[in-house]
Amino acid sequence: MPGDFPHWRTVHTIFTRWWQDGSVDAIHNDLRDEVRRSEGRDTDPTAAIIDSQSVRAAETVGADSRGYDAGKKVAGRKRHVIVDTIGLLLVVMVTSASVQDRDGARAALAHLRGLFESIRLVWADGGYAGKLVTWARKKLRLTIEIVKRTDDVKGFVVLPRRWVVERTLSWIFQRRRCVRDYERLPEHHEAMVKWSMIMLMSRRLAGTKDAKHRK
User: Fold this and answer.
1) Residue 33, domain member (yes or no)
2) How far is CA 132 from CA 129, 138, 207, in A?
3) What is the pTM of this model?
4) Can you give the residue range of the structural domain that contains 63?
5) Which of 145, 183, 205, 208 has the highest local Cβ count within 10 Å?
6) Residues 6+ apart with CB under 8 A from 51
7) Of 17, 70, 43, the residue nearest 191 (C-alpha)
8) Position 8 in a domain
């Protein structure tokens, strides 16, 4: 805890209160709207990109909300994120790392639809292919477009649209509190992700060097 902060219990109480009363969402969403306006965009996006990121969990994370991501070989939790086409966060949902991307995507996409009626198209990687695409089209009126690597390309390659959400995950991961999950409750880690984006958007609007570096 920084030396100029109050006692940790006071900080935690305020953190919890702001999360529960919607203050964190309000601050985050207002800043996102301002950034979109500053980029010459409407505040309501029409397209989005979805992805996930598994992070290791600290001992403070209970066994009931942690799991093992066999693909990434990570024991902890998974962040399911949906961003707009410039990388700003629209939805974050934290689950056990053992939750499959397609399963986590259902809840995340349903939440997205509740927040943004304007969105019609969502880009995703091959892990979201299959029944999810049909379900999203029928239940949510969302078109999921799968962006895949071509079989003849080896090594690192920047994939259309997917690089945007991968950059956002990198932004989030750069924040110390998001390098791993320390939170007892999944929703508290969701709040930490939003605070990381609040910091980034505030600096971008202020025109600081840190924000320009992350554009």
Assistant:
1) yes
2) 6, 10, 40
3) 0.90
4) 24-148+156-195
5) 183
6) 81, 124, 125, 162, 165, 166, 169
7) 17
8) no
